[in-house]
Amino acid sequence: MARPGPAGAASHRATGSAEAHLMHIAFVTCELNRGEELYPGGLATYTFNVASGMRERGHPVTVFLSGSRDLTFDFKGLRVVESRPRLPTVLRPLAAFLQRRLPATTERVARSLALRRSIRSTHRQAPIDVIHYSNWKATGLFRLSLPSVLRISSYDPCFDNNPRSLHLDKRLSWLTESICIRRFERIFGPGDHLAAIIERDLRLPRRIDILPTPFRASQTTSGTSFRQPGKHLVVYAGTISRFKGAELLLALIAHYLERHSDTVFLLAGKCGTIDGRSVRADVDALVQSHPDAVLYRPHLERDELMAAFAQSDAVLVTSLVDNFPNTALEAMSRKAIVIASDTASLGTLIEDGRNGFIVRGRDVGHWADRIRETVADLPSDRKAGIRLRMEETLQGFSIAHALDRLEAYYQEAIDIQGSNPTRPKS
């Protein structure tokens, strides 16, 4: 069954921020911006944007962060309550044994318990109306029974770069995530493909709702030039790892360059792993084989990345599986044509041939042909039409529109729990 697009009908519609009541919103996460680094990761960026947006609308906001210390502080106008993972006193005699044998699982249990204590303490002083949990690292494993929603930001069995190693600790840590997800009645996420996998794997009683990711286009760009005279430019931005499609990415570039010498590929992102080994040697080998046609940059400043997108003929999203990567939004905001896999969960953003391209399957030759058609054979009027429709599509991901939808979603969670007398309030 096709899922609704961001601007069309959806499982839950917002009534607009003007009709929403002010509510104390708690965000629970394991990742948040640090220092002046504005975009350290997808979840951190999302949490900061949404929490800041809700605060600007007048809602009291508290961010509960699982970190390395116990501290309450202000971060760019947000009240943050940080707690370090620790087990209850009764379990501490077992802590050394558990952390040695089951480090990932023990950390997740300790993390969720510490977050629960922090949220409960704050709720007693300033009652919380709704809690917005992230599923990453099972933060809601020991959730409070206050009105709550869970946002899917990842899924362990899919986001595993070393699936050949399936030891006990990994299996148990995955189990904590499954239990956490099943504990919520209201679950939403940004990506259709990953949502369908989770619904199937966990046999959820109801569908995961798809809500748009709030997006604010960057207003800065650098003067760095990545184009070479007379050559096309194709960009990949993100970690080069198994679930991000590293095997396909490197193979298709080599295949493409065997046939065409008028294109430069820019790879921007750190090297990750495939089946437990680093891909750095593979990337270096590709660069050495095609020194004039493959540029590798482990890190680009944000304004440099925006410049690369603006100069590109195409941006690749080769993910084996993904959860609506922000790269696609950022590229489209710079009028870059996105070529994405059908497993990247971008079905509510990209309509194949209309505002970008979706490639089905992992055939290297098919991908190389699609890239060639886009950068070299696409008529200028067709490109102009695609870029115009990109702008129209991005309107459905504006901060205002996305926050309207989320406000309504929160209010529904509050209303539904309030109408169920069998459920405890706190």
Could you characterize the architecture of this molecule?
Strand 9, helix 6 (246-259) and strand 10 form a beta-alpha-beta unit. The protein has 426 residues and is of the alpha/beta class. Helices cover 38% and strands 16% of the residues. It has helices spanning 42-56, 95-101, 103-125, 168-182, 192-202, 246-259, 280-289, 302-311, 326-333, 364-377, 380-394, 399-418, and strands at 25-29, 61-66, 71-75, 78-83, 130-134, 148-151, 187-189, 209-210, 232-237, 263-268, 273-274, 277-278, 294-297, 314-317, 338-341, 357-359. The protein is globular and about 65 Å long. The protein folds into 2 domains: 17-216 and 398-418, Glycogen Phosphorylase B (Rossmann fold), CATH 3.40.50; 232-396, Glycogen Phosphorylase B (Rossmann fold, 3-Layer(aba) Sandwich), CATH 3.40.50. Helix 1 crosses helix 12.
Layout of helices and strands:
Elements: E1 25-29, H1 42-56, E2 61-66, E3 71-75, E4 78-83, H2 95-101, H3 103-125, E5 130-134, E6 148-151, H4 168-182, E7 187-189, H5 192-202, E8 209-210, E9 232-237, H6 246-259, E10 263-268, E11 273-274, E12 277-278, H7 280-289, E13 294-297, H8 302-311, E14 314-317, H9 326-333, E15 338-341, E16 357-359, H10 364-377, H11 380-394, H12 399-418
Parallel strand pairs: 1-2, 1-5, 2-4, 5-6, 6-7, 7-8, 9-10, 9-14, 10-13, 14-15, 15-16
Antiparallel strand pairs: 3-4, 11-12
Short description:
The chain has 426 residues and is α/β, with parallel strands linked by helices. 38% of the residues lie in helices and 16% in strands. Strands 3-4-2-1-5-6-7-8 form an 8-stranded mixed beta sheet.
